[in-house]
Design brief:
Layout lengths: L4 H10 L4 E5 L3 E3 L2 E5 L6 H14 L2 E8 L5 H13 L4 E4 L6 H11 L2 E5 L10 H8 L6 E6 H6 L4 H7 L4 E6 L5 H16 L5 E4 L6 H26 L1
Parallel strand pairs: 1-4, 4-5, 5-6, 6-7, 7-8, 8-9
Antiparallel strand pairs: 2-3
Helix pairs in contact: 1-2, 3-4, 7-8, 8-9
């Protein structure tokens, strides 16, 4: 988020990435820092982003953390924005009483709503309550699973993933460098593999610019890659 969209796409393309999550409020480019990513962007600005994506062979898998507003009209703007960028998942923490309306829009637009298990926003921080909130909804309403947050609140991430089988659209990985974190990620990946998970893993790194940013990003990505490589070898 310290970079503009244009700078971010350049960094990721240079390092052979192909899929990204777009952040709310991120500036468009060094020359247009006043233009922020979000549903209020002009159609011409969306065209600019799509042209950038085409040039560097990247696509936007998800967008978040989204603010759906207080009405269906507000939420529809978010879905129109996501549709304009061919987004598959909208990550957010919508109110429980808005889920029926969001389910209708998600089905209409064929775009998933991935609820983030963010702390301080009950019932989503608790795996059981999160399941209860979504289990009567269509398969377009699911979860963006933050493994570190489940661990931080004393929950077993594997147990949460197991309960939410089939409803997890993407997984946040903040840091898999330390031994406890790496072990937790490894166990979760084993469970997801058994579930034949086909969603996205979104790695988040420490802030920075230039070489520092690349170093931080490489550290998290390589740690994740090491875990996946070991799991694949063990499965053979």
């Amino acid at each position: 988020r310290d970079l503009t969209v244009m700078e971010m796409l350049d960094v990721l393309h240079t390092n052979n990435f192909h899929h990204i999550e777009l952040s709310l409020g991120q500036s468009l480019s060094p020359d247009h820092k006043d233009i922020k990513v979000g549903p209020e962007m002009a159609p011409t600005d969306l065209e600019t982003i799509n042209a950038m994506l085409k040039d560097v062979h990247l696509d936007i898998v998800s967008y978040g953390v989204a603010e759906f507003g207080r009405s269906e009209a507000d939420a529809r703007k978010v879905f129109e924005f996501a549709k304009g960028l061919k987004v598959k998942n909208i990550v957010g923490t919508p109110s429980v009483d808005s889920l029926e309306m969001l389910d209708k829009l998600a089905t209409e637009y064929q775009i998933n709503v991935a609820i983030l298990n963010q702390p301080g926003l009950p019932p989503y921080a608790d795996g059981n309550a999160l399941l209860q909130a979504i289990q009567e909804r269509s398969t377009h309403i699911g979860v963006c699973a933050d493994i570190a947050e489940w661990r931080r609140t004393g929950q077993d991430p594997v147990d949460c993933v197991r309960k939410l089988k089939g409803r997890i659209f993407e997984v946040y990985l903040k840091d898999s460098g330390g031994q406890p974190e790496a072990a937790a990620v490894s166990d979760v990946l084993k469970e997801l593999a058994q579930q034949r998970f086909k969603g996205a893993f979104c790695v988040q790194t420490a802030p920075g610019r230039g070489p520092e940013l690349i170093k931080n990003l490489a550290g998290v990505v390589n740690a994740f890659s090491d875990i996946v490589t070991k799991l694949a070898a063990a499965a053979q």
